């Protein structure tokens, strides 16, 4: 109405961005783990699972659910998860989530990863995908 002509804005920058275009081009983000907390969780299935919360400092950076009381593939993955965390030479699987939590309360220690790598830009930002674990060098502890 007043006759002012707005200056034209370029439709794009003069240089292309260098950000990832495909999710396969995103590098996982590494988080140093300072604490892992375990608890019992019952989801929609009604079957209890072990919930592992991973902390970097005071921030919870990831969670995962271990299906100890499930059957089939979920149970096999749970046993694989436990085997990676058991102390050397231990091979007993707990029958229930509550049994494992009782072991932990009694002093049983699962090996804690020193770092985890999370997939950035996942569709579910609330529950990022853990794509890699870094474990402590147990050979140094055994040699000491």
Average per-residue pLDDT, rounded, comes to 85
Helix content: 10-25%
- Main sheet makeup: 3 strands, antiparallel
As a whole number of angstroms, the C-alpha radius of gyration is 23 Å
Structure description:
Helices cover 20% and strands 26% of the residues. The protein has 144 residues and is of the alpha+beta class. A hairpin with a 5-residue loop joins strand 2 and strand 3 (48-56). Mean pLDDT is 85; it is low at 140-144.
What would the keywords be for this entry?
three-stranded antiparallel β-sheet, alpha+beta, 3 helices, 6 strands, 144 residues, 26% strand
Furnish the topology, listing elements before pairings.
Layout lengths: L28 E4 L2 E8 L5 E9 L2 E8 L5 H14 L11 H9 L9 E4 L11 E5 L3 H6 L1
Antiparallel strand pairs: 1-5, 2-3, 3-4, 5-6
């Amino acid at each position: 109405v007043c006759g002012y002509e707005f200056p034209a804005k370029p439709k794009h920058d003069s240089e292309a961005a260098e950000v990832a275009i495909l999710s396969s081009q995103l590098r996982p983000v590494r988080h140093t783990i300072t604490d892992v907390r375990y608890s019992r969780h019952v989801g929609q299935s009604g079957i209890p699972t072990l919930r592992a919360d991973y902390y970097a400092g005071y921030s919870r950076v990831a969670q995962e659910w271990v299906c100890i009381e499930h059957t089939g593939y979920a149970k096999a993955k749970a046993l694989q998860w436990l085997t990676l965390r058991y102390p050397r030479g231990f091979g007993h699987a707990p029958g229930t989530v509550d049994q494992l939590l009782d072991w932990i309360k009694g002093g049983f220690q699962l090996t804690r990863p020193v770092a985890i790598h999370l997939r950035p830009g996942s569709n579910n930002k609330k529950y990022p995908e853990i794509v890699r674990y870094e474990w402590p060098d147990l050979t140094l502890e055994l040699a000491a």
